[in-house]
Sequence to fold (292 residues):
Amino acid sequence: MKRILLFLATNLAVLVVLTIIARVTGLDAYLARAGSSLGALLVFAAFFGFGGAFISLATSKWMAKRAMGVQVIEQPTSPAEQWLVSTVRAHAQASGVGMPEVGIFQSPEPNAFATGARRDHALVAVSTGLLQRMSQEEIRAVLGHEITHVANGDMVTLTLIQGVVNTFVIFLSRIIGNVVDRTVFGNREGRGIAYLATVIVAQLVLGILASMIVMAFSRWREFRADRGGASLAGKDSMIAALERLKAAHEPLPSTQFAAFGIASGPVAGGLKRLFMSHPPLDERIAALRAAP
Fold:
């Protein structure tokens, strides 16, 4: 969850910065004057929308390392680190991807993530809590889950979806800004200070709402990664790992979203579900058990 939130937060921040740059350079003013040229606005929105998404993707590994405090294993210094690197290597070879960087970060909770712009230059990191609280077979399954994300190119697909979403967020926010500036504030040119303020607010609101689409894809890919983890490490091991995660996080506060997709009680349903990056563990376990 934290990795996805970092990606979305970076993306929104980039969009705001690009909006300010467009204002300073006069590009937004030009588009406002040529408000009838929706084609030009759409091209502008696509350029900035995909630009923001790809900047987020390009910086995702760097951001994750610093935000999570990941220590990359350059040379294993213990049997545990050696086993961890060897297991990731075996999964990567079996999945047909390049050897990712392997790292550990300090956290008492069992957690793991994979990120990176390229399948052959990714990062797989696990928490100290995961290493301490899971068996090797369970860790092997979690690593298989993360390597499956890499093999499936999930971060790239997420970026493309985010780019499309960004495009329409930028496009609609500028139309809203133009309309508000003209009708509410009486600026005939539709490019006053109210235009910029309205665009930024509309962009943030629409961006948050549009994140539901990104989260829906993220939930779907978790089921697929679970199947990949089961294929690489065994179905029973993947189920055991998910059950271990569920046990480690119960009872769970209703407002808490955990990084590997922990959710129970009220969090698993209602409006909050639309903003979850991972399905509830009970659903993931049930899906694996029902799989052939």
About this structure: The mean pLDDT is 81. The longest strand covers residues 101-105. The two ends are 28 Å apart (CA to CA).
